[in-house]
Each structure stands twice: as C-alpha cells, then as structure tokens.
Amino acid sequence: MWEEPRHKFFLFISLLPNPTPYTPHPKPQTPNPKPHTPHPTPQTPHPKPHTPHPN
Asked: How many CA atoms lie within 13 A of 35 on its CB side?
C-alpha cells in the first residue's frame, strides 16, 4: 500500500515527454559526392545480328 503513490508518481514521470528527444541516428554523413553509376555507357550492340543458317 505504501509503495502505490510512489509507483504512480514514477509512472507519471516516465509518461512525460523527454526534454531532449531521443535521436535514433547521428547526423547523417554527407552523401557520396558523385552518385554511383551502375554501368558504364552501354557497349554498342553486336555489329551484325546472328543470321540463322540458310537452307
């Protein structure tokens, strides 16, 4: 019985919004200077397409 008021008090305190909000991550690092280009310029397609064997 004696503990009850204290428990209520602590519960109330814990429910109060944090004065300093928790920042989940540090400041994000500066993004990559140049974005990653996945592929170099595509190579020219095969000069002549494969012609099936003539009959």
From this structure: 3
